[in-house]
Every structure is written in C-alpha cells, then in structure tokens.
Write a structure and sequence with these properties.
Layout (H helix, E strand, L loop, with lengths): L7 E6 L7 H14 L4 E5 L3 H6 L2 E3 L27 E5 L2 E5 L2 H10 L4 E6 L1 H12 L4 E5 L15 H22 L2 E6 L6 H9 L4 E3 L7 H13 L5 E6 L11 E4 L7 E3 L2 H13 L3 E5 L11 H20 L4 E6 L2 E6 H4 L11 H8 L7
Parallel strand pairs: 1-2, 1-6, 6-7, 7-14, 8-10, 8-13, 9-10
Antiparallel strand pairs: 2-3, 4-5, 11-12, 14-15
Length: 365
C-alpha cells in the first residue's frame, strides 16, 4: 500500500515485556493521531492478537497517564509465531504456517502498515511477514540489550537501575554480616546487565556468558579480599554465565515459545562453590522478573519516545522492512535483513571489560 493512502496503522508488543513499552505506545498513538490523522489499532497479546483478530482501537484517551507505567497495555507473549503455530491434529501437536490468517485480519481491520515492537523473536516474525508482503516497521525492545544493529534497546536502562539498586542493598548487608553475596541477573545469552550493573554497583566479581569462568579465580579473589581485610564480597552472575568447559544452566523449557530455553540456577551453583571453597557464609539472590517491572527510567522513556516517533515517520515515508535503531546518539533505521533474529553479545574488546579489569574486578578468567 502506498504510504499516502495509509489511513490506519496496526501496533503490537511481542516477547518479554520491558519498561518503556507504554511510553512508546503513547508516543505512537499521539503522533499517528495528532500529526498524521491516522487510526491506530492495537493488536492484543503479541502476534496472538493478529492471529485471532483480537484488537482494539487506540485513541488519545487510551494513552492518558501511561507514560510512567511498566508493562504494556496491549499485553504480550513470547509465543504465537504465525509461521510455527501449534495445532492439534489426530491427537498430536503439530506446527503449521498460519500466516495467511494474519493477512486476513490485517485486511479486516483495514490496517495499512504494522509496527512491531519486540525482541529478536518478534522481529524475526516481523521480517517474515514483511517478506510475505506486509508493510512492517520494527522497533527493538528488551531488557537484555542483546539486539544487533542498535546501540541500545529500551528497557535495558531500567533493568540496569533495578539491578544496581539491588547491589547497593546487598552491599550493606554483606558488609554487616561479613558474607559473600551472589546476585544472579537476567540478560539471556549476553552479559550487558551483569557487566553494567556490576560496575555501577561496585561488584568484586562479574561473571558473564562471553567469558567462561574458572571458579578458582573467583575463590582467589574472595580470599585475597579477606587477606586485605575486606570481609565481604559481591559477586554478580549473568544467568547464562558458564564455567570453563561447562554448560549454561537451564531452568526449564517453555514449549511453543520463540526461544524455549529459560535460564536460571547458575547463581546458586556459583554460591555453593564459593562457600565450599572459602568457608565463608554465602547467600544467593536471584533478581528475576523484578528487572522487567517498574516505572521506566527517564532514559528509557526518552528512547521509547524517539523510537516511537521514528517508527510512525517511517510508515508515512513508506520505509518498510526496517527496524528503528540508535547509533551513537542518532535515531535511524536498519533493514530487517541485517538485524532480525540476531543477538548481540559484549565484544571482548569492549572498553567496559577493560575498565572492570583495571578496577581490579575479577571476570572469572
Ligand atoms: O528477554 C527478556 C528476559 O527477561 C530474559 O532476560 C530472560 O532470560 C527471559 O526473558 C525470561 O523469560 P520468561 O519471562 O518467559 O521467564
């Protein structure tokens, strides 16, 4: 459809929620209606709403007061890929491509272009729909900050703030009790939250998936601190951190999810090993979904606003098949072909890894 003829845009939030989703929904609705006089249709619960035609019109009234709210008023899920959709056939679950249904529902809702706000799984689906002929613009969001071709996703800064605050709190109790405190943080296969929060929260050990750790190095660090008169230590462990020659710890598998693997448990493993080797009382905190909740930081709100406005502008310019991105301090876009479905880990030459080493932080190697 020619951009000038677009009268209605569709919008959905997919994958794990992240602080800033409501901020971007508000920005999109305000610009689409206020500046371009468009109608906005919000599909509910990620791609599920597109498949089942569950949608609601979003008006200016619907977005009043949602800027500082965590979560997403549209709901979300990390299941329901229309290209790999579970159905029961002769008593057995099989996966089928039902993407034609998406096109039927887009037509029923008279949607001329779709904005997909999601992580790698949702953006891979967005890319598939674009390749099948749907005018789609993507927006990167995830607390993990692990999407390629953008310097930052919104949600990350808030998760980082939450993890840093947790470390500040753990610090005082660790110091009082002369204990080792281990904090396990999210981030999937990337260590962004662990590294940034570890530095911001003054951790003594930071274990990330990008650098397999040697537990002896961790124990040495704790013992060295003890000899230096520091009777406590703070250890941050990314959920996908793994020992040298070992494997990541999988907590569960969620069938039908974009990525069925759910990580978790490495914090306890590391905590037990430290306690056994140092004899020092060790406690483990798993920060979990607290990192996904709460009011977005000012940075995440601004990033979400900038991404949202850019996405609507791209629709009006007919710039489809691309994802909005941040490069340095500039908002631009990049073709799905390069970005969708890829993951971004911390490069080993990242200046913050060097900074951590120079500060004497043990990275487990
Ligand atoms: O991608 C966001 C994220 O919170 C990851 O950091 C974490 O591994 C995963 O989602 C948890 O997923 P769920 O909400 O399904 O437990």
């Amino acid at each position: 459809m020619e951009p000038k003829k677009i009268k209605t845009i569709g919008l959905l939030t997919g994958g794990g929620d992240a602080p800033g989703l409501n901020a971007i929904i508000r920005a999109i609705v305000k610009v689409a209606i206020g500046e371009y006089k468009l109608r906005v249709i919000g599909f509910l619960n990620g791609f599920g709403g597109l498949i089942k035609n569950q949608a609601q019109e979003l008006t200016l009234d619907d977005v009043v007061g949602i800027l500082p709210r965590g979560g997403t008023i549209l709901g979300t899920t990390n299941r329901d890929s229309p290209f790999h959709y579970p159905v029961m056939k002769e008593g057995k679950k099989v996966y089928v491509d039902i993407s034609d249904r998406v096109f039927e529902n887009i037509a029923i809702q008279e949607v001329g272009a779709l904005i997909v706000i999601g992580g790698d799984g949702s953006l891979a689906v967005a890319k598939g729909l674009y390749q099948k002929g749907l005018p789609v613009v993507g927006v990167p969001k995830t607390i993990d900050n692990d999407l390629k071709d953008t310097d930052q996703t919104f949600g990350f800064d808030t998760a980082l703030f939450t993890a840093t605050e947790a470390l500040d709190k753990l610090h005082t109790t660790a110091e009082s009790h002369h204990r080792i405190m281990v904090l396990e943080v999210m981030g999937r296969y990337a260590g962004w939250i662990a590294l940034f929060a570890g530095l911001a929260g003054g951790a003594d050990v930071i274990l990330i998936p990008e650098i397999p750790y040697d537990i002896k190095k961790v124990v040495d660090k704790v013992n060295q601190r003890e000899q230096d008169g520091k009777k406590f230590s703070i250890v941050v462990v990314a959920e996908a951190a793994k020992p040298l020659g070992g494997e990541i710890v999988v907590k569960r598998k969620v069938e039908d999810s974009f990525d069925p693997i759910r990580l978790g448990g490495i914090g306890n493993m590391v905590g037990e090993q430290i306690e056994a080797s140092t004899g020092k009382e060790t406690r483990v905190t798993v920060l979990g979904h607290l990192q996904r909740g709460g009011s977005p930081t000012a940075f995440d709100r601004i990033l979400a606003i900038r991404y949202g406005i850019k996405a609507v502008n791209m629709v009006m310019e007919g710039c489809f098949g691309e994802m909005v991105c941040l490069k340095g301090n500039n908002i631009s876009s990049v073709p799905f072909a390069k970005s969708a479905g890829d993951r971004r880990q911390i490069p080993l030459n990242c200046d913050l890894l060097l900074a951590a080493r120079q500060l004497g932080v043990c990275l487990g190697d």
